[in-house]
Design a protein that fits this description.
Layout lengths: L29 E6 L3 E10 L2 E11 L6 H4 L4 H21 L3 E6 L1 H5 L3 H12 L4 E2 L2 H11 L10 E7 L4 E7 L8 H6 L16 E8 L3 H7 L6 H14 L16 E6 L1 H11 L6 H4 L3 E2 L1 H21 L8 H17 L5 E4 L3 H12 L9
Parallel strand pairs: 1-4, 4-5, 6-9, 9-11
Antiparallel strand pairs: 1-2, 2-3, 6-7, 7-8, 10-11
Length: 370
Amino acid sequence: MAPKRPGGAGAFPKPVESLAPEKPDPGELYAALDLGTNSCRMLIAQPKGSQFHVVDSFSKSVQLGHGLERTGRLSRASMGRTVAALRVCQQKIRRHGVSRMRLVSTEACRRAQNGRAFLKHVERETGLALEVIQPEEEARLAVISCAPLVSTKTEQLLVVDIGGGSTELVWIDLSSVPHRDRPRAIMRLHAGFHTADSPFPTAKVVDWISVPLGVATLRDQFSDVEDDAARYALMSWFFEENLAEFAPYKDEQTRDGFQIVGTSGTVTTVAASHLGLKRYDRTKVDGLRMTSDQIEAVIRKYLEMGPAGRRRDPRIGQDRQALIMSGAAILQALLRCWPTDRLSVADRGLREGLLYAQMSADGVLEDGPF
């Protein structure tokens, strides 16, 4: 399947993701839910200055897209797992009295023949009305969630969101934006990648692409290849082939002034492995800078470990051992095209982007960048 493409070709503070110290007023709360191909994730938060406090959260692997590549449909078992997870989300929303929320689904529901029917079933069973967002909005939300990690020295920025069913890439030129305004200019992209005249310095979106290959769908493409190393190599080269029409694909980038920000379970898992963490620690992973050489060293170790070794690794685990290799294949393909000494690891994504967008639209963020 060809990638979906568009028609045309001082840093903002990190969110404080800790429990609010007192029971918040329900009127101040916002919810953001991201139903992806692999996982169901939700945050409930309240505005706090120019950031937010997380009041409650939920994350569960539901494997909604399991078998989708083969059948074109969501399976009964995967839909059952997902509805059960969404019931938990609905209970949390009701318990906290949340009235302002944005609940979205992505690639699995976009592609499945029965995706729309499933979401109607979800609404009947749970009362939650999920909307299917299009690739451009998915990419845009990922970009604004990562804005706090953008260096003021960055001239060219590549934001990569590796999902379960698709991978979004956005290339942004910041060279005409004053250094101190660069993270703030990224946040302004919430209004669209090609905005009208603005009185503020603007980030130029050179190109963006949504490749319909994520950790689950890429794995399923090569599930018949038994050899671990061969399967990995095929996945990586296949993903790179799907980048061929991305405008900056063949452009050489000097490492000075070029930054990649990666947001996904793959990137955070690789970072945890690089740090040798025995237990995952978001405070050590989010914002970590890694070089191409460091990432490739981790991937080589994954291949040496093999499937059995990866299952035993506490940073990967049994459920993710196959997915981590398809994600690593995507990551290595990107680094082959654009080597960098500045890949920033983002433990954040659509949920944070959804919260920022809602709160900014309501004007409840102090000194916001919009």
